[in-house]
Amino acid sequence: MKLSELSPVAGSTQVGKRKGRGAGSGNGKTGGRGHKGQHARSGGKVRAGFEGGQMPLVRRVPKRGFINVYAKPLTAINVAVLNRFEDGAVVDAAALIEKGILHDCPYGLKVLSNGSLTKKITVKAAAFSESAKEKIEQAGGKAEVV
After folding, report:
1. Digit-coded pLDDT (tens) for 41-70
2. CATH of span 75-145
3. Helical H runs in 6-140?
4. Is 42 in a helix, a strand, or coil?
5. Mean pLDDT score of the chain, rounded to an integer?
6. Distance CA 37, CA 31 (A)
7. What gap in Å lies between CA 127 and CA 133, rounded to an integer?
């Protein structure tokens, strides 16, 4: 195979529509832009959320609560997922990624209590819900905060 022999898969590429090339093309005259108005003009684009000068919805709705923009969100998993590991295993973010349960865990792991646990395992995570901690310890395992 040579570079000159390469071609895209059939149906994966399309030829762009040619605007303003006569009425028979279906995109003649106004070229699909309609008559007049901001969108008909060249450079007539508006930013997301712009409402033509009206006070935008985002600014009309009152703010509620506090949002920490510096918060590092933890990756959550449920106790039921931990049954995929063998008895006596040590489970942390790296083990979950290796097993294919998670694909990424940038800021840490939090274990939640959905489901039940039948294996006796040691779980290392940044945080545990109270009920998840109880379920792990009831099964004979350990919940270690890292």
Report:
1. 999 889 999 998 999 999 999 999 999 999
2. 3.100.10.10
3. 57-60, 93-99, 130-138
4. coil
5. 94
6. 14
7. 9
